[in-house]
Write a structure and sequence with these properties.
Strand content: under 5%
Number of helices: 2
Structural class: mainly alpha
Order of helices and strands: HH
Radius of gyration: 19 Å
Helix content: over 70%
Length: 81
């Protein structure tokens, strides 16, 4: 049961972080649209950075989920032996 609980904790954390990244990117996008020149470029850079961070977070979530599934299978295999 510990493995299942760990997976839900990771999944919840990823959802919270994804929502925060989405909110930050929307805020950066809105403020970037209202400004011109260097400030607009800075806003676009922030948008790009947030998007990249979101992609990396998604990759990390997938890898963590795969590892948890691997551990779960190993634990079930060891319990059946």
């Amino acid at each position: 049961m510990k493995f299942i609980t760990s997976r839900f904790d990771i999944h919840s954390l990823v959802k919270i972080l994804a929502a925060a990244l989405l909110a930050a990117s929307i805020g950066a996008f809105i403020s970037g649209c209202e400004q011109k020149g260097p400030a607009q470029e800075a806003g676009e850079s922030i948008d790009d950075a947030v998007e990249e961070a979101g992609d990396k977070l998604e990759d990390a979530k997938d890898k963590a989920g795969d590892k948890v599934e691997e551990w779960k299978k190993d634990a079930e295999k060891n319990n059946n032996s």
